[in-house]
Design a protein that fits this description.
This is Phosphopantothenoylcysteine synthetase/decarboxylase. It holds the Pfam family Flavoprotein. One of its GO terms (molecular function) is catalytic activity. InterPro entries: Flavin_trans-like, Flavoprotein. By secondary structure, this protein is α/β, with parallel strands linked by helices. The protein folds into 2 domains: about 5-20 and about 190-245, no CATH class; about 25-185, Flavin prenyltransferase-like (Rossmann fold, 3-Layer(aba) Sandwich), CATH 3.40.50. It is built from 10 helices and 11 strands. The chain has helices spanning about 5-25, 40-50, 65-70, 70-80, 90-95, 110-115, 125-135, 155-170, 205-215, 230-240; strands at about 25-35, 55-60, 85, 100-105, 140, 170-175, 195-200, 205, 215-220, 225, 240-245. The chain has a 6-stranded parallel beta sheet, sandwiched between helices. The protein has a 3-stranded parallel beta sheet with strand order 7-9-11, with helices on one face. Strands 8-10 form a two-stranded parallel sheet. It is globular.
C-alpha cells in the first residue's frame, strides 16, 4: 500500500471519528445583550428556537443591560445557570471557547458605534470584536439601534454609517424575530461569490471555508477531497459555495 493511500485511509478514519463526536455535542452560541429593550421579547423567542434546534448558550450582559433586563427570566427562558457580565473578565477565555455563532440579541446605538470604530472597552464589545476577527458568524437584532428614531438627518446619517460598517464587517442585521430565520442561511445578506479558488487538498476544514469567505470566493475541490461536516455546516451558514470538479 502506497503512502498516499495510507494517508487517505487515516484521514477518513479521523474525519469519521470527529464527525461522530460532533453529533454527540450540542452547538455553542455566544449570546450578548446590550442595554436595549426594543426587540427583547422577540429575541428571546428566536433564541428558544435555537435551543430547540440543538444550541447551548453562553450569555453575556452589558452593564446597562443588567439594569433593565430580567436576568432570572433570561436564565429560565434560555436554560442557562450563569450569566456573565463586565465585572468578571476572568471568564473571557471560557466565553470564547468552541463558539459556533455570536448572537447580539439586543444591540444599542452606543455598542454599534463602538464596534464600528474598533472600540472594545467592555466585555460585550470585546467579544464582538473578537468574533469579527476570528471569522465567527454574527447576527444582531436591529431594533435597538434603529437610525429612524433620530430627528436629526446628520445624526441619522452617522447611525446609518455605523450600521453599514457592521455589515461590512460581516455582521448580519435583522429583526429580533428573525435572528434564527432559516437557521442562518440568509447570513450573508445575499452576497454573491463570483470568484473561485481550487484547493488541492485532501481535507477541507472550517479554516479553509473562512479563508474563502474572507477572500469572497467559492471553493473548488476534486471528487477525492474530504470536506469535514463542520466545514460544510459553516459554509452553508456563511454562504460559501463548495463545488466538486471533475
Amino acid at each position: 500500500m502506497g503512502l498516499d493511500n495510507m494517508i487517505e485511509i487515516i484521514v477518513k478514519e479521523v474525519v469519521k471519528r470527529v464527525t461522530n463526536e460532533m453529533k454527540l455535542q450540542r452547538k455553542q452560541a455566544l449570546v450578548i445583550f446590550t442595554g436595549a429593550m426594543a426587540g427583547y421579547k422577540d429575541a428571546l423567542h428566536s433564541l428558544k428556537e435555537m435551543s430547540a434546534d440543538g444550541y447551548n448558550f453562553k450569555v453575556v450582559l452589558s452593564k446597562s443591560a443588567q439594569k433593565i433586563l430580567d436576568q432570572d427570566k433570561i436564565k429560565e427562558e434560555l436554560k442557562v445557570s450563569d450569566i456573565y457580565v463586565d465585572e468578571n473578565p476572568k471568564d473571557i477565555d471560557y466565553l470564547k471557547k468552541d463558539i459556533d455563532k455570536i448572537v447580539i440579541s439586543t444591540l444599542t446605538r452606543n455598542s454599534a458605534a463602538k464596534v464600528a470604530t474598533g472600540i472594545a472597552d467592555t466585555l460585550p464589545t470585546y467579544l464582538i470584536s473578537w468574533g469579527i476577527m476570528a471569522g465567527i458568524p454574527i447576527v444582531a437584532s436591529e431594533e435597538g439601534c434603529n437610525p429612524k428614531n433620530s430627528n436629526s438627518s446628520h445624526y441619522q446619517n452617522m447611525l446609518v454609517n455605523n450600521l453599514n460598517i457592521l455589515k461590512e464587517y460581516g455582521i448580519s442585521l435583522r429583526k429580533a424575530k428573525d435572528i434564527y430565520k432559516d437557521k442562518f442561511k440568509e447570513f450573508t445578506n445575499s452576497i454573491e461569490y463570483e470568484k473561485e479558488m481550487f484547493m488541492e487538498k485532501k481535507l477541507i476544514t472550517r479554516e479553509d471555508v473562512i479563508e474563502a469567505k474572507n477572500s469572497n470566493k467559492k471553493i473548488l475541490v476534486s471528487k477525492n477531497t474530504i470536506v469535514t461536516q463542520l466545514a460544510k455546516d459553516i459554509a452553508r451558514e456563511i454562504g460559501v459555495t463548495i463545488k466538486t470538479t471533475n
